[in-house]
User: What shape does this take?
Amino acid sequence: MTKRFGFTPGNVFLLIVAMVFMLFSIGYAAKEQTQFKHELLTLTLPDGWSVNKDAATGKELIGWLKSETLPGASILIYSYRGVTINYRNVRIRGLKRIAADYPKGQNHLKKPKTVKTPKGYKPKVELWQGFLDAGGVTVALQSPMAVMKTKKSYILMIGYVLDASGVKMEEDFLKILKSAE
Assistant: This one.
């Protein structure tokens, strides 16, 4: 004999609970992307990136982003304001930072190029390769660098990643940069 499924009040209740749970699950599946928010800048981060809380040390370093998917990848965000601040001297500050971080030498992989963002910013982006000593072994890293003038300041972003992950880092760096508001 076959047993028929009957719609009893208990079965209907379980069916409704299951449907409501599925609807809420679908809503959470389209989760909100992580954002870096500062009074001078807002950036939307791609999947796998997060904001390192309380990492800003001093008045110029305003943020530190890190990747959970790219080993050792991070991006530092600096802000410079003032009458004498311009693209040239912010870029020089970035180059000095790269020179200090890579004492074994640097290679300029890509010359500065202008990238347009949907909000109308026109950052100049370049790519560097640097070498440092890690436990007696020389290690190569890549560093995308961008200088961008916003309404309130000049923003300098420098990324750091192992050379092998440079292509993916450059893609993510450009996505983050183009999301600037």
Summary: The longest strand covers residues 137-149. Residues 35-178 form a domain with the Protein Transport Mog1p; Chain A fold (CATH 3.40.1000.10).
